[in-house]
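ugh ok fine here u go
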Amino acid sequence: MTLKIAIDTESGIAPYEQLRARIAGQARSGRLPAGYRLPTVRGLAGELGLAANTVAKAYRALEADGVIETRGRNGTFVAATGDAAEREAADAARAYAERAVRLGLGREAARAAVDDALRAVYTE
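structure:
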């Protein structure tokens, strides 16, 4: 199994965000199974023609989201995401719903805002 990622340099989406979204999508779909060892920051930067800081930023975001975990000198691995990711998403959805109610948005307006946000961030 190998990590297959292409960065669209013509896209209006920042390279680190493209990288973050693609790794997260592959991890959540199972294409990158839990325990899969990711390339080093420098190694992946070289493969993709990106700056090491760009890859490091994507890895930091993925780690903050619980998608990957760094095990010191042993490397960076895809974390077991299922339940934790779903719980975090449910918590975020609940917080959004409560905020939408406080703002006086109806259900349709709140759903439309979510749909717009999802279209803006999903790149695959």
